[in-house]
Amino acid sequence: MKNLSIALNIILLLAVGFLYYKVYTTPSTPSVVVQGKSKDATVVYINSDSLLEHYDFYLQLKTDFDKKRDSVDKLLQIKDRSLKAEAAQYQQKAAAMSDAERQYTEEGLMQKQQSLVELRDNLLEYLSKREDEMSDTIHNHLTNYLKEYNKSFGYHFILGVQKGSGVMLANDSLNITKQVIEGINKK
Description:
Structural class: mainly alpha
Strand content: 5-15%
Number of strands: 4
Mean pLDDT: 84
Number of helices: 5
Distance between the termini: 75 Å
Low-confidence stretches: 28-38
């Protein structure tokens, strides 16, 4: 029994010695810092909110989309006011109209209201499709740029971080937002 204890202690001593040797003799690769960023990092992140605030292509598409949305809103407001004015005019004249004239006018107003609802639905669908296309375009541009950008760095992951995204804290040395904004706006 005594010999077994001595043999186990020798094996444990050899294992500890081997681990000590492996840990302290393996050459470590020093971290090369380029523009304040760790070159050997495998995971970096981009602040998505900051990116969108400074991404010129996104801002231009958003401005164009906002103009389309505003023109749709104005068109719908004009049509709505016109229909309301026509309905108010009908109410003023309704007492002097015959039953047939009232019925005919009411049917016309209901048709116009129905047409306005259909127009609103069609325009909202149009805006929704344009917004989806804009999102796809932005995503494709950004993804293509990041693929090119990453050829120089070889990151395994480039994460998008934004407020409420679940990432509570990240090391600022892994933030590549500024470099990506500068590069993508130049491109």
